[in-house]
Structure formats: C-alpha cells, structure tokens
C-alpha cells in the first residue's frame, strides 16, 4: 500500500523557491510598466473646496492625472459595501477618489501615472488642494458622545445596532448568588504584512482582454469588482495572484481603490500600469482592527458556574463600513468560547470615526471576545478565591453535548452550533504542558530570589470554514502528473503542500506527482477567498471530492481496458491494478491517454495505450455520458461553519523596576479536527502567537485628537523582534474530527493569535496583583499602572 500523506509532517514544497529569493511578487512583474502614486488627504475630516492639477500637467514623464471629476459610470459611484446586513442601517463606502469630502487621513484624492514612481511622487506633491477642515471624531468615546458627526446623515455616528439573546440574562443575573461588573478595552492595531498592497494591470487592445495581478486574498472577488466597475464582461478579465508577502486580513477587501484605478488607467493609456503601496501608505490608507469597549455584567453561583451574562460593547469601524459587521458579529458570538452561559444577552453598536477603515485582522473579532470572556472568568475565580482552571472547567460544554447549539446566529447567517470538541481533555493537556499544578512551588522559589512571575490561561472556540463554497479542478496528464487548480490565493499557509497531500491520498498517486496552482482565475474562475481559517476546510474538501471523481473515472476507464470489474481494481502509487493480480495493471498516464483517445501517438503513454482494447470497432472510445480527458472538478458548500478550539497558557516575569515583561514559557493545546500536516499547523500557531504577543504587549494605533496617526512608521509602531516572542512554544494536538465535511477538518489559521491578549492579561495580573482591564499593555503602561495603584492605596 502507498504511504498515507494525510497527517504527515511533509516539508513545504514552496519553501525552497521562496527562501532562495525566487518568489515572484506583484512589484516584480512587468518591469518597465508605467507607475502610479496617490495623493492622500492630510486631514482626518475636511471638505474639498478645489483641486488644482495644472502644476503637474507639464512635468516631463507624467502621463495622466485623475481626480474624481475624471471618473465616469460605475467608477464614479461609491465602492461596494461588500456584506450588507439588516442591522447595518447606515452603511457607507468611500469613492475610488474622494468626491466632496475626506473622512480620514490617507484617503485617496488624486491618482498620478508617470514614467516611473519617482516622477509620480514628485507630481503628487505639486497638486494643490484647498480644504475646509471639519471637526474630527476620533475613538469610541468621541463617537459615542456624538458632539460631531463623521457623516452628517448618520445620527449619533451609529452605523448599526445589533442585539442577540438566549434566555433572560437580566433576571438570571439578578437572581444569581454572586454578581460582578467589568469594563474592558482593546485598542486598535493592524496586521502589517511584509508586503503592502500592490496591483499591476495590462490591457490587450486587440483581444479586448484585461489582465490584473494583485496582492490579494481573493482573486475572484477582485475580478468581479473590476469587471463591474469598468464595464467589462467577466470573461474579459483575468486576475492572477502571484506570491503574496502576507495578508492576515488586510488584503481581503475587494476592491481597494487602486485595484480599480490601475486597470482603468491601463485601459485608457494602452500601457501596463503598476501601483505598489509604501509603508506609510499602508499605515494610513489600508485597514486596522481590534478597537472595542465592553461593559460586562455576570451572575454566577458558589462554584463559579455562569447563571447569566450580559455584554454591551461599542465597535470602532473607522470612516466607512466596506466589510459590513463581520468583526463585531464574530466578537458577540465567539465571546462565549467553550462555555455554557445559560442566559446570554449581547448588544453592540458599530460606530463611525474619522480613522482608517476596519476589516478583519487575523482573529477577526475573536481576540476581543476571548479577552472579555476570559477576563470575566478570572474575575469570577478571584471573587470566589478559586483556581482559575477549575472555574473554567465547571462551565465547559461537555463532550456528550455536541453538537451544541447556543441559540445564536453566527457571522455566516447560520446557527452558532458547535460540531465537535472535548474541552475537559484539552484543559488537562494544557495543565500538564504548562505545569499548572506545580506553578505555586515555582513562584515561591523565584520570589525568594526577588523575581516576580505569574501564570495565565485562556480558552477559545473559533468558527472556521465559513461558506459559501470553494472548488477544485484536477487533471491527470499523460505523463501521470496531476495538476490541481484551487481558486484560493495563498499568503504563505502551505497550500501547495497541504492540498497536494489531500489529492495524493484521495487519488492514490505519489505526492511528488501532484502540483497545485492557486489564485489564478484562468485556471479556477469560481472561488471565494483565503480568510477566516477556511482554506483547509473548504478547498481541502473540494479537492478531496474532485479527486474522488477523477479516481472513479480512472477506474471506470481502466476496467474496460483491463477487462475487469471496477470493484476489482485499486489505484496505488499512480498505477491502476487488479487486486491480487499485480501483472494486470496500467499506469495512470496511460488511463489519461485512453480518456482522450486521439488518433496519434505523441508520447510513450500514447504508444502504450494502443495495447488496450479501447476504441475498437464495436465500442465507442468515449462513454456516452462522459467527456474527454482524465479530469474533474467539484465544489464543497458547507451546512454551517465548523468550530475549532484551543487553549493557551503562559508564564511571564515582570521586572520589579522597569516593568519589562518577559515570557518564560508558552503552551498551546489545539484541536482542528483531522490534521493534514501537523508541521504546517504548528507553524501557523507559532506565527499566530508571535502576532498575538505584538497585539498584547506592543502594537497599537496611536491617534491624536485631530485624527493624525502618530506612529505611522516602523520606527514608532512597536513590533516584537525574535527576542520578544517565546523561544519555544510547547504544542499538543487533540483531534476531534468534524462531522460536517468529508475529511473531518477544522480550520487552524488564526488559532495562535486569538487568546494571546487574554493569556497575557491573566498572567500579568497574576504576577502584579493589579487588575488588567485594557490591552495592549506595554512596560511603560504597566509601570504607570503600578504608580496609580500605589497612589490609590496611599490616599485611601
């Protein structure tokens, strides 16, 4: 039997190319193309009185200048609100180029195309814009106060108000033996991929066909948007996603203004055009996330068991709502984690501010929700004087309660129904991994040496594999090589390896013979995108189904050729053979020839096919209900999301003098159902934890009251170096396969980042004995928190 690839730690096939500098990114493409630069607003809120482009027109090398006045048809209309929702009563989207008003620093106003980027940037600096400044609204508190409005037709700056409930939370809290209230904050951050956004376009005038290359997470979405906005048939547009230097959610939005302006200019000018975002542009004109303020009321019994939970929160979505309410809906539902609140009410308002728009950033609302729930669990444990792990355990959904329906609606419009898991088993694994029961002895020993340490843990559940669908196309060539086309893009997740493992097992071919192509609408025109930990569930399932279809066809063709029953055949290592008769066999490449019986022998496989009696006089060469070629496509559309879960724990040390925070140990237990490649999953966890460390301890978007971003460079926006992330992460897996898809998979892409703020808040609070209610918390903030606490004790 062939070696099974599923579950094996196979080295990623894409890595050799990428680490040797042979990757190809958007900015590497079409050298010599015209290059574009964007004039961006210096104001957070202002009316545009006049734009004077005359000083630019005579600059040698400038080819074209566009403002809103140059846009026509659909291009002159606002960009789409991609995901409408009934409660999004006041959704707003920006224009490709600002029309009458700018609503955040960095909003695009003019687009210059020149011989090179240097000339384009010089030209942008010479455009004269007259502004009438308007009062900016910055931050949740200012948005709630509504002394000024971001959009004059949006009362109270409220784009949406949404409420969900199960049971009677108010009555349950009132009747509970114990009650607590908490106020909790998470501030804005951003994903900061190494490669910013980028787009290149080329218009073939003769063929009337547009080719677009974009550093995106959704090539088919960009294709649809470009076709709609530029008045083209979908078949006239190809979007190809080359290597992408990180996405993390910021490249999920489609279209960004530049993804329309670049192809528009390429069509108008008849020359290729390129735009590559610089780092400051990424800070002020891409997307942020995380900013929320929560108010919590909880009632519980003497064991710490939840009786009722009520949460109200305010979500800062920036100046526009291009991605709808996905982030706060996820927060409101995934907040519940692995627990049974019995009675739950959640209300949120999504608010406009004069800041950069919000789209999902790795974790997508879950880090905020997990932070709130886990801080609540820690507060309950502290109130009762109980072990924090024990309080969590008494609230767990039990293994025999799956599927567990929370009675809420998830972000995909489907029920919030968990499909599988074993939370008690995960907790036991985590406690052993981190040494939970031995920590007090460790604390005492280190305290005797003047060191201050704390331990924390956090649990989460992550909805993954959100629909509506993904597809895969598989073709077997006469060489026996297997070509797989997936509509998803890839930003480093290991798709070319993982999907090859799935196809190799399902089809029965050597792993080395499988080649995967992603993110090319010429190869797979129908897809949704790479986000929300959905790739393995969606495209993995689609690839398995397509492989099964191709295998069935191969066995059917081979059965005729070998004059055997399909039931007597097996496909192993790329060879179809009769079970128990090893000499009665044929290569899969030969089957591919027989599936498309041409008159001519082009290669050795074609010659080999002539020995088999297919296509003889009394039987047509192709079955009546079949098509030529050993290939097939299939699509997977889920009933609902599947829910992965996990638990993290950390031991930290805080310096008694400088308040520096050092991570001594970090442990993860993760359950993503059936593992395709444990090494890839562990890599995802490591990367996620690194981002989580940044989000918990360093990274924030520091706006002043005028809406200026004060730290829009890597000199000022703090990111963790390798010295700040854990030297090693102890990881253990639990596999509870999902019953919802053919492979039992649950997603893993965001697992590492989701609980980090909660874990570090818990551990730092344990070390310091101070309540941690706002994240991120830097050493300087911890230092000042100590001072305020000390002053409070002194005055009292």
TrEMBL record:
**Residues annotated as signal peptide:** none
Q: What is its EC number?
A: 1.2.7.4
Supply the Gene3D superfamilies for this chain.
Aldehyde oxidase/xanthine dehydrogenase, a/b hammerhead, Aldehyde oxidase/xanthine dehydrogenase, molybdopterin binding domain
- Keyword Protein biosynthesis set for record: no
The molecular function terms in GO held by this entry are:
anaerobic carbon-monoxide dehydrogenase activity; iron ion binding
Q: Which UniProt keywords apply?
A: Molybdenum, Oxidoreductase
Give all residue intervals belonging to the Aldehyde oxidase/xanthine dehydrogenase a/b hammerhead domain.
20-135
Keyword Iron-sulfur (UniProt) = no
- NCBIfam families given in the database record: CODH_aero_grp5
Protein name as annotated: Carbon-monoxide dehydrogenase large subunit
* Source organism of the structure: Saccharomonospora amisosensis
